[in-house]
Amino acid sequence: MNIRKEISVLLILLSLILAFLPLSANRSFNIKPDRLMSEILSLDASFTADQVAEFIVKEDPSVQLIDLRSAEDFGKEAIPGAVNIPYPEFINSDPDVWLNNKKIRNIFYTTGDIESDYALVYARGMGYDNCYVMHGGITEWKRTVLQTKFTGERITARENALFETRRRAGEMFTELNSLPDSLKLKYLESRKFSAKKLDGGCE
Amino acid sequence: MKLLKQYWLVILIFVLVVLFVLLRTFSRNDFRYDAARWAEPSVLGSNIVTEEMIMNLTGEILLISLDIEAEVVEQLEEGTLIINPASILEKGNLSLIRKNKGPVILSSDDSSVSARVWMVLSQMGMDNVYILQNAEAGISQK
What we know:
heterodimer; A: alpha/beta; Oxidized Rhodanese, domain 1; five-stranded parallel β-sheet; B: alpha/beta; 6 strands; 16% strand
């Protein structure tokens, strides 16, 4: 009887602690600050516009581009294959919905850099080490891929491959963004990340 | 006294759990609970200041220039430091930021570095840290 009483008292006290714990405790950074800092300052956390162009051209299934701009900006112009999660929504939702597939490399981009960098730290801090940024954002992507021009006299095989990738990625970008509004809207709607978790079972 | 003797084991476990929770919640060397709350200024854009806005800030301003080529902490003049971002989490540097009675402003040639360091410091509970908008590099919220 005594043991029962003791266990009951302990459970009541522990439940009191639980009651006062912040509800969002599950959405807190869970790695050591030093480790996070070295990860995010490493060059390995970023991809260049050329690397992203190559992923797009090869339709690499292990890469997911995440556009953190507003839905309006995404509607005007988007990189082929990207999904849209506006930054405020990304911060205020459970990131597990977007980032839980560890086999996928998630690459964030915005217009410039700053919000994708916040998102990188936010995601890595929560243990999603499959997250990266595209350095320079869509501005740099357009500058590198769309405005590319070879000015030399002789082109090496390597340069040729690079320019071919840029040309193909540029074409895909132009094709998508020059679609009639109704078609483009349909395509982009289909690329809007659906924040639903599967509950299991069949419907 | 009788109660203490009767429930000493329960009380001991409870105190240990409370200590652990308090340590996790208020530890200054780790991240704080509720990441979204600490990231909120980045959503609102209230963590970015311009040079004009600095003039209107109150308290002691500490300007930290994040330079990846800096070897150690260098003091340029009073209230201005150059720190290698990789060493900003060293005890002495964190102490400087925490003890500063006013805004701490991060500046860097590469806006990515300031943004990343800001998010780390913010998640450690430092709510007096801001990013200096670099007009030339064109930091913007977009």
